Amino acid sequence: MTRGQKLSDDLQNTLIHLRKTCKTLNEIVEKSNCKKRTIQRVLSHHRKKDQNHLGIGIELRGRKRIISFEDLQFIHGLLLHTPDMYLDEIQHHLDERRGVLAAITKVAIERDDLKRAQFRLNYARLYSADQLVFVDESSFDRRTPYRRRGWALFTPTWSVSHWYHIHQGGRRLIHCFQVL
Fold first, then answer.
1. Where in the chain are the domains?
2. Angle at which helices 9-21 and 36-48 pack, to 10 degrees?
3. CA distance 47 to 44
4. Mind giving me the DSSP string for 102-127?
5. pTM
6. H/E element holding 173?
7. Smallest Cα–Cα separation from 19: which of 9, 2, 32?
8. How are beta strands 171-179 and 158-167 bridged, if at all?
9. Looking at residue 140, what is its pLDDT?
10. Side-chain half-sphere exposure of 152, counting CA atoms within 13 A
11. Are 173 and 144 in contact (CB under 8 A)?
């Protein structure tokens, strides 16, 4: 970590706990008498390697969480006791017992299992399993529009038949392959 000598594990753990309680990095510098860059390195190393070592990795990263670790344990206990509980019931119990107002996301509210099943059925009617290529499974990059042939295990020739442009939070290209 530091040039010359290694920081003790106790000091590293103290710096991590200070980061949890102090508002700024300068406060930690004043309280610990360590250099700012040393503290940054300790915290970076902790985020990369030792997140589960102290059990506080969740609270150090990203924006402030609405549901704390204790609330997650409460939800876990609820679901162990009643596995078929709905999201709105969990939300009600969180508000009633823990005082946490957690909103159900729009995606979870609008999710319709019947529509999802119909979509899968229609897709299964139109295409066979060996015709589907998903973007995360294909080598999709800037060169993709210039490729004229894809790769297949069983058929010798595949070609790009259609390009679809979907605008949902940005431009995505999804392509279908068809046997020639």
1. 9-60, 69-108, 128-179
2. 90
3. 5
4. -PPPHHHHH--HHHHHHHHHHHHHH-
5. 0.32
6. strand 171-179
7. 32
8. antiparallel
9. 57
10. 18
11. yes
